[in-house]
## 1
Amino acid sequence: MSVASVIHSETDFDVRKIREDFPILKQQVHGKPLVYLDNAATSQKPQVVIDAITRYYTLENSNIHRGVHYLSSQATMAYENTRTILKDFLNAASEKEILFVRGTTEGINLVAQSYGRTFFKEGDEIIISAMEHHSNIVPWQIVCEQTGAKLRIIPMNERGELLPDAYEKLFTPRTKFVSIVHVSNSLGTINPVKEMIAMAHCYGVPVLLDGAQAVQHLTVDVRELDCDFYVFSGHKIYGPTGVGVLYAKQELLEKMPPYQGGGDMIRSVTFEKTTFNELPYKFEAGTPNIVGGISMTAGIRYLQSIGIEAIGAYEHELLEYGTEVLSSIRGLRLIGTAKNKTGILSFVLDNVHPHDVGTFLDVEGIAIRTGHHCTQPVMQFFKVPATSRASLAMYNTKEEIDILADAIKKVMKVFS
Ligand code: C6P
């Protein structure tokens, strides 16, 4: 469906009504209306998510999978129901393929330690890309240290797009795994993951997608993508911090050993031998973030009630507007100009350090992120120490982009 056919203007989308659902947006910061443009770091929470947290602690609080009493079975039902919502959200084949984790970072570490440490050996190769978040670099470096495997890196061009031919050339008989970001957090690039997965599968190699910046903007269907692992964080999809999801194909999970040991992941324990629980519990040791899981799905249901296609189309309209407005500022260079992007506007200004930009904008009530965005290799590629990054969500407006642009012009004036 084309962007234009989904949405025509802010009015159609009713962004004003959506903003009403996010109480935090109503406040003033340093005497100015808050302009929140740091959504890639974490999104704000709608009232339904805040209510789900309050309701859980007011009416349902209890440990799950353990008690026979009323509250425990209510909490267990609510928690397991969220697994079903997540299964449907990702179009996974079964609840057994949905693991609760602390977030994207823990999901990738789980796969690196459980799958990688078990199946990689000396000389094996793992392909990642030049635009990975540190969370999709360091866990693989650790497993390389442990097993003797090596990292191979898919290069990118000056627009921040991966090079498909170079990707294909990286495959050798030693390639054992591919782990790539679906949408880059510092560039906004949407990678052609379906094609990349198909290519890896031609060589019999499984693929993990880091979906931390994708699920809140794009429809993700793990069966259509045919990815082997998919991971995302609750707090970037309008839910709370400290909870996320790892999807994995059941056949792979069956072969993988537990990541952590403890309560709930066992079937029986003696001092001589422990047998493990069935999927997905084999990978969920200890009391989980129960309220996190339940309220994360309140966020997902909220997003679904608006419609992910409509959100994506609206954000795309904002991105196009923001790109035009920011590009017209003399002395501003956009970093990340891929053809296929989500709402990330990373930029550098002539003669002004990004941290000064961030501090100045904060005084104007504008929240952006400045720094390397946990993607130092991306900064090295573009030969910049850091960037300023405005990241968009469904509740942002063109008016806020204008406020951002005016504030940037002021910064440039002050520093010139
Ligand atoms: N990026 C940003 O400001 P956690 O911290 O586990 O929820 O997510 C880690 C992570 C992994 N992959 C990608 C692509 C990400 O964007 C992030 C988090 C935030 O860009 C915080 S560094």
Note: The chain has two domains: 3-45+307-415, 50-304.
## 2
Amino acid sequence: MKQGFEKYIPFVPLKMERRAWPDRQIVKAPVWCSVDLRDGNQALIDPMNVEEKLEFFHMLVDIGVKEIEVGFPSASETEYEFLRALIEGGHIPDDVTIQVLVQARPHLIERTFQAIDGAKHVIFHFYNSTSTLQRKVVFKTDMAGVTKIAVDAAKLIYELSQPAIEAGMDLRYEYSPESFMGTEMDNAVDICAAVLDALHATAEKKVILNLPTTVENCLPNYFADEIEYFIDKLPGRERAIISLHPHNDRGTGVATAELGLLAGAERIEATLFGNGERTGNVDMVTLALNMYTQGVDPELDFSEINKIRELYERVTKMEVGPRQPYVGELVFTAFSGSHQDAINKGASYMKESDSPYWEIPYLPIDPADVGRQYEPIVRINSQSGKGGASFVMRMNFGYDLPKAMQPEFGKIVQAETERQGTELKPERIFELFKTEYIDATSPYQLIRHAFSERTEKDGHSRVTFSGTIRNGENTVDVSGEGNGPIDAFFNAVHGQKMDRFTFVDYKEHAVSVGSDSQAVAYVQLRDENGKNVFGVGLSHNINLAPLRAILSAVNRAVGEKN
Ligand code: KIV
Ligand code: ZN
């Protein structure tokens, strides 16, 4: 890039004496309007056919979008046909308003009125371009020229709409000063005010003023200043619904929309996953779920995000990237060890504290809220640490490893990832666990055992263990007594070259595999050098699982020594 930047003209921000928007918060959902079937569709390599558009339309209705721009019926036969199919096929629910787009040109306006015949609720959306650049290089006219185009169109639309309104159609108007953000703000205010007048807008019959970043050309805060300024200066502001139509050329479409809402906008035109011309329109999913994760009801239903994505990808033939907020394949996955640790701790905290809030680090939303609870949150590769493998064991297989044991198992898993050089699937992690702990059954193995229990006069119970233990080729009968089964067993085997171990800790819980429930016990022993050694035992019998765990620990320690 050889100094090419010098040819670009920087955006000149408004001079604001004061601004209120930085101190505000988004506390309620805007009116949502989907422009997927128009702006989104017109940007596709293969635009959707009528059947695909219909399928998409029904999905938008199911999501809860109440205003849907269904096309540009004067621009193509397919668009016209689709609109007729929607109306004549009775596909539009009574609480949904369809929106049609048209340029501010008389013959196209007339054709658009034909296209909406028979619809119940319609937003008639017309536009012309107003920016300094477009006036100079495209229309070669001044502000008076573009204002005349807009006002003439508004008058014609008002006139042509009267018969339909009298016949019972609920018809509203929308005007977009296209390339708004590149228009001098006082000019934008004047043209919109003239359009409001021509459309006889009142507080009861509001007109939608849709302010697009047709090509996003400035920082979101500068755009918010424009919106605040525009709203402040607009005569009869109560006659208008302020709508935004952000594009994403600088990659800040979502921020632009959010700051624009702070600045007073009430409505957003957006597309699912940000489809649209060039870098796309603002992404409705991200915007809505950003609100959701701030405790604001977005009034849209994305609880089955994967299904929405699947339909979207099929009919648009576009792909949703793996890092796309809330929906990308990898957005709920942590590979990094420290992140996995924190998620692991967060999940335990939620369980233990019974917190009514979502308090898990690195996961801004509960995957279950968007139907993604069955996907792996933690995936294990060489970047992963001790907590990750334990998280997989808990989430995928129901094994809740004691904290003290987690680093040891984490190291075993990490060594394997480094050996293999690839990600380890949960099944492989379980295999490692099984081989390392559960299958550690030699040289010591319990062949037979029996417990008896008696209660002393003082109310304390004493347990006696007797059994047979194999040590390599040899078998030996042992017996011992203690205040519980583990104590009794430990005392029984103490003479069997196991004297060097002391018992430190123990944990047991049930694991279910299908309808089969087993007990898993984790035991921590310490050898004569103070080294911790862990063992795991599995059994249908809750008294037997810890005995197996003790022998597993001893076997592992003996194996290490050999
Ligand atoms: O991006 C844009 O300016 C538009 C208008 C027609 C609203 O799509
Ligand atoms: Zn657009």
Note: The two ends are 64 Å apart (CA to CA).
